[in-house]
Amino acid sequence: MKYISTRGQAEPVDFAGACLAGLATDGGLYVPETWPQIAPATPDETYSQTAARILSAFAGDAIPSDVMLSLCEKAYGRFAHQSVAPLTQAGPGLWLMELHHGPTLAFKDVAMQIIGQLYDYLLGLSGKRMTVTCATSGDTGGAAAGAFAGSKNVSLVILHPHERVSPVQRLFMTTTGESNVLNIAIDGDFDDCQSMVKSMFADKAFASGIGLSGVNSINWARIAAQSVYYATASAQLGHRPLRFVVPSGNMGDALAGYVAARCGLLPGGLEIRCAVNENDTLARLFNTGKMTRRAAVATPSPAMDIAVPSNFERLLFEVTGRDADAVRTTYDTYAQQGEADLPEAARTRLSCTGLSAGSVNNPDTMAEMERFRQETGWLICPHTAVGMLEARRLPKSDAVATIVLATASATKFPETVKEATGEDAPLPSRCADLIARGEVFERMAADPAAVRARIAAFVS
Ligand SMILES: *Cc1c(COP(=O)(O)O)cnc(C)c1O
Prior knowledge:
- The chain is an alpha/beta fold.
- It has a domain at 87-105 and 221-421: Rossmann fold, CATH 3.40.50.1100.
- The protein contains 18 helices and 15 strands.
- The two termini are 35 Å apart.
- Pyridoxal-5'-phosphate (PLP) is lined by residues 106, 108, 139, 217, 247-253, 303-304, 383, 407-408.
C-alpha cells in the first residue's frame, strides 16, 4: 500500500512513512494510492478486531496483522467502555455515537491511542527517535499527551493557544509529569499554532535535525483510525442508510466517514453533514465554492475554532479527479491572495459526495445544550450540541438513521455546561485527581523562530 501527496510533488511512501511524517514534503497531505475495499464490520467483532482489520488494509505489508491486533487491543483496552464507540438512542431515528470514553474524554483519543502504539512499534523497529509536534485547539494536545507521555522513542511538543482552551482541556496536556513533553501556550489562536507547525516542517534542516513528525488531523493514520467507528456504527444499526452529523473543525473526523464509505465499510450508503460553529469556513466552502481566509473567533466549542479546515484538501483531491496540479494551484492562490475559487468541475463533483455543511451560532449552541437536557436528561458538550442542532435542522427522513457524533464529554467543559443548563458536570472518578497534579507549561509569543529555538533546546 503506497501513499501519495495531494500536491503531487513528494515521493510516494508506505504506511509507516505516511504515519511517521504527518505532512508530505511538498506541503500536501498523504492519501492512499488506491482505496482498499474492506469487508464491512459485523456486530459480533470486538472494536479492536474491526480496527485491526481496517488498519491492516491501510498498512499493507508495513505491519503484520497479528501485531496490528495486539496494538489495537493495547490502545482500546484503555477505554472506559468496552464497545469504545457505543451508540445510544436519543429519540426516534436519532442516535448519539459516544466517542468520549478514552483517557482524555474526547474523540481524539480514539485515533491518538493507536497512533501512540504505532509510533512505539515502528520506531522500535528502526531504533530511531522522533519529535512529535502538535498544534491543538484543545483536545488533540491532551490526547497526544495521553498517548505519548513517557514514551521512550518520542519527544512530544504541544502548541496550544493561550487562554483559548478550556481549563480541563489544558489540565490534560499540562499534568502528565513526564519529561518528554514540552507544552507551549502561544499568544495567538489555533491557526497561529498550526501555521507555526507548518513553518517547522517547511524548515527542512530544522525538521530533519530533530526528526520532526506531526500528529495533527493531517496525519493519515488518524483518518484511518477514525474510519473504524463509522464502520462499527453501520454494523450496530444493521447497515441501514445512515446520516452522520459531525461537529467539525479541521474536518478530519468527517473525512474519515467519507473514507469509510469509499472503502466499502458503509454498505447502506451515507450522508455526512459537517456541523461547524461561527467559524464557518467549511459551510461557506460547500455552499459557495469559495475558500476565504478569515481569523478564527472564540466560541463555546473551542475545539472547532478553526478558520482553515486542513482536511478539505484531501476531499478536493478526490473531487478534482485526483488532479494534484489543480489542488496545488488552488492552495497557492489561497496562500497568496487569501481566497480561491474551487474549480467548477470540482464543485459539481463535491455536491455528489454525500457531504455538506451547515453552521450554528453561539446562542443557539447554548440553547441546544439545555433543550437536549430537557428532552433526555443528558448533558452534552458544546461541540456535540452544534451537531445536535444541525441534525434537527435537516429534513426528516424515515428511511435514514441519523447519528450525531458526541465528540467530547460534557465534563470537559463544566463552565459552559453550567452556563447553558445550570447543571454541574463533574469529572468522572477516573480523572478526578487531574486538578491536584500540578501543571507544567511555558508561555511564548507567536514568533516561529523563537519557538523553533526553544524546541531545539528541549530535544537536544
Ligand atoms: C477536534 C474536535 C472536533 C473537530 O474535529 P475535526 O476532525 O477537527 O473536524 C470536534 N469536537 C471536539 C470535541 C474535538 O475535540
